[in-house]
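Schema walk-through. Below, the input block comes first and the output block second. Nothing else is stored per chain. Lengths vary across the set, and this one has 149 residues.
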Amino acid sequence: MVFDREIIEAKIALDLIPAGDMPAIAQDALEAGLDGRAIVRLATLENPTYFQVAEVLPQAMAEMGLQKMNVGQAARILAGRWAKEILNDGKDPLLYRKQFEWLWIKSDYAGEIQSVGNLDDEVWIAESMGQTQAQIRGWVTERLRALSV
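--- output ---
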């Protein structure tokens, strides 16, 4: 896995990284040329508990150059990356509307992603009002484009 500071910061802010995955992130940091006692300590943990990670994480974050991020900003970053991936890979955006809803709920309904947080309900309403799949896909794609900027 590539060491992507922005994504790691966002996932930490949203509590999306289980304790057991933190050593892999520290190992990626080491492979990216970062070093420090806390990074090494975190990288060598095997099947760590939440408390083992919590003990070393603040110092490891500092050594990795990771900043604390607010939940809304974190949700915006993840949603933007997802939108860009969906659009760049030519995926059907209608298949991912529940993913954005999940992130909106996880972020405590962050205003930063409100435009896509309720897509599932909006698509259902549009379908019940007789809009075609092509019409719906069009406006969903436009929302994702706006988010991916």
